[in-house]
Structure formats: C-alpha cells, structure tokens
Amino acid sequence: MSFFSFLGAIEIGLIFSLVALGVFISFRLLRFPDLTVDGSFPLGGAVCAVLISSGTNPWLATLAATAVGACAGLLTGWLNVKLKIMDLLASILVMIALYSINLRIMGGPNVPLINDATLFTMLQPEGMPDYVARPLILAVIVLVAKLAMDWFFSTERGLAIRATGSNARMARAQGVNTGAMILLGMAVSNGLVGLGGALFVQTQGGSDISMGIGTIVIGLAAVIVGESMLPSRRIIYATLAVVIGAVVYRFFIAAALNSDFIGLKAQDLNLVTAVLVAVALVIPQLKHKLSKRKPR
Fold first, then answer.
1. Which UniProt keywords apply (predicted)?
2. Cα 37 to the chain's mean position, in Å?
3. Below-50 pLDDT ranges, the chain
C-alpha cells in the first residue's frame, strides 16, 4: 500500500468514525435498530453540497447538514414513540422516504463540488498538500465530537438516555421520560451521521444519491471491530474503541483492495466487509473459549 493510499484510508476511516459514533448511540446505548443511517448520511451530504454550490459558507452548510440529519433521526424516533410503529420498521420507512427527499434536494442524482470552497480548502495550511491536511483536520473534528459525546453522556440527560436503553421500565420507574430520551438520542445519533455525510462530500468532490448504500453496515462493522479490540463499558473508552474500529476497518479494506496477490477489486468491497465483520464477531468467542481452557 502506498503512502497516498494509507492517508486516504485514514481520511475515510475518520469520516466514518462519526457515522460509527452515531450507530453506537442507537444500537448500543438506546438498543434501537436504526436503518435511518442509510438515508441520513446522503441527506447530510446532499444538503451540504447544494448549499456550498449555491455560495453558502461551508461552516454553515456543514452545520445545516448536521441539523437535517438530526431531524431525520427525530422523525424515526417520533414514528416509534408517538405512532407506536416498531423501531426497525420506523427506520426503514424514513430511510425509504429519504431517498426521494435527497433526489428532490439535489435536483438530480448528484451535485459536483469540484471548484467550490470547502471546510478543507479554508482550513488547509499553506504549503501542506491536501491529502495530508485533510486527515489532520478530520482528526481534530473527530476528537472534538468524541469529547463532546463523552461529556454529554456523563450528564444527567445523557445518563437518562443510557438508562432508557439499558432498562426502559426501570428508567420510567425512576421518573425518566423514556420517549423524550429516545427522540433526543436518535437526533444526536443521526446528527453525527449527517455531519459525516457533509464531510464526506467535501472530501470526495460532490454528493451522489448512491453514497448512502451500505452505510449502516460500515457503521456496525466499525463498532464491532472496535469493541473486539478494546472492550470496555466506560463511555470514554467505548467511544475511543469505535473511532479506532472505523479507522482500522478502512485500513484493512484499503490493504485488501490494494494487495495484488489477493486479486480483490473495488467490486469486492462488500465481500471484504462481510468477512471482516464475521471475523470480528468470532474473535470475542474464541477469546472466551481460550480463557476457559487456561488452567487456574
């Protein structure tokens, strides 16, 4: 793998670490199977690309993308909490609806950002190549998002969200409004995903209607890989594991696709993903079996 490919893998891994953090909130903290991610990721990208191409400041465009992602998660939570639609089905309904909404927003299948200013062109240090500057800028953004998430989930409201996911009945008995916590948690989750989509289009030079396909699988893969590498119940280490998992996942994907002796091509991406997730799921079981066999 070349140095350029290595930095590219880190760049994409850092972007999808934001998606993985969002998936971690819904799947691990709220125990909410959320497929909205496949729609909110391109939604954030579509809104950001359209606004930037129309002359909006990239900071405001990125903030708007985060907000609309949060609204998508809020809608999924509302369907579940208020209309009593099953969580998985509610997320599927929103994901399907967002496909048409994204096409409406973009006015077509894609929006290019070839010559438009982005966050990365604004923040890139003079004299530093863009392929070096982008991972550094993304690392700072991800670090800020991780620390903000660690802080939020140590507050009273954040703990209430975690309690809702752990045992909703017990949380209600303690006076927690579990419905409101689901709405808030889903909004934060998909807000992070929308942010990831906004950053993705700014690094890739435009948005595309198909960019959300398989996003939930990538997010889950990052969470599973990270948890197998750094298992912990403390939120500060759990979020760190998710970020590391996303970067490691993209690194192995890039390594596999750039290894000529293996013979893998770009169309084998989903196959490599499936194998990596299967390995990550099996490793904890093997560790548990080996620990039982060790003499005490």
1. Cell membrane, Membrane, Transmembrane, Transmembrane helix
2. 8
3. none
